[in-house]
Amino acid sequence: xxxxxxxxxxxxxxxxxxxxxxxxxxxxxxxxxxxxxxxxxxxxxxxxxxxxxxxxxxxxxxxxxxxxxxxxxxxxxxxxxxxxxxxxxxxxxxxxxxxxxxxxxxxxxxxxxxxxxxxxxxxxxxxxxxxxxxxxxxxxxxxxxxxxxxxxxxxxxxxxxxxxxxxxxxxxxxxxxxxxxxxxxxxxxxxxxxxxxxxxxxxxxxxxxxxxxxxxxxxxxxxxxxxxxxxxxxxxxxxxxxxxxxxxxxxxxxxxxxxxxxxxxxxxxxxxxxxxxxxxxxxxxxxxxxxxxxxxxxxxxxxxxxxxxxxxxxxxxxxxxxxxxxxxxxxxxxxxxxxxxxxxxxxxxxxxxxxxxxxxxxxxxxxxxxxxxxxxxxxxxxxxxxxxxxxxxxxxxxxxxxxxxx
Length: 406
Hints:
- By secondary structure, the protein is of the alpha/beta class.
- Helix content is 37%, strand content 15%.
């Protein structure tokens, strides 16, 4: 087999856009006609520029190569430009292309991808959901409304979910790390209390912050949350402060989780050495499925668990599920269940009662619905996710709007 052709689809989910402003989906084809799908989560440049990066990575390091040679292609990209260090844009582009190689290999062998990663460790994969407003009830007030979030949590638990994530600590600002407003700390503790009261011990609470605080202020916030016993404290500080991460991990009883914005196994190794106990690779940025398997092994050696992150489309989701099936130290995978995720691909792994069955179809088990993809192109110039420039509002309070595109 030899990699021959590439197609790139920039797909815009309809409003409110859960999963980001757009999804970068790639399809590779071998010279013998086998196709594979992948998804690129890294998007620090605009979609047109990212298309160029993806095409360059494919042409420079992958075209004409046997898709089995994933380690070789990975090392080429990692070393490109005399770097050999994390480059989320280039390595993120490779991540999506790498997923497509696994899809091709599974199809060629008529086996699901998890069977090529060590086999089935988990017949069912535990999933969790962010607390989103119900369709038709989207409102900026939802994100600062503790009773509304508690109601949403109770509804999700009634559906069978055993873990829910929320982030009332905002804002999502370029000025992190900063000191949160006291009102943000108070609201965060109130959210935890209300949601805990609503779900009892039927579900775990997953507290996110999107890397917004300095170490000292992250510790202040953690102390306000500890009484409610969250399962994790996600991205308490910006991703490049490893010494600060260790300081926070030592100071709180809540397990610290990071990984959405990390790239490559060495960044995860540094976080694990700092005391992180849950790693959350976004496979479309961290380097792909094989890099994700390495990260899981590093976590296992440190007594840590893996919980693949998802704020993207259904292709990265499928990759996460296959990785989760193979990992003995899997905690859970993040899920986004919307009609558009379902419509964009056929064969998408589905969450039922809070769990996902191990896929049985060859490869990733999904195929792109080209008509849906082409009917929903992204034509703007924004980025997948964007942070606000305004600082924390210490007087009027803040809100993080759940990652909605606009």
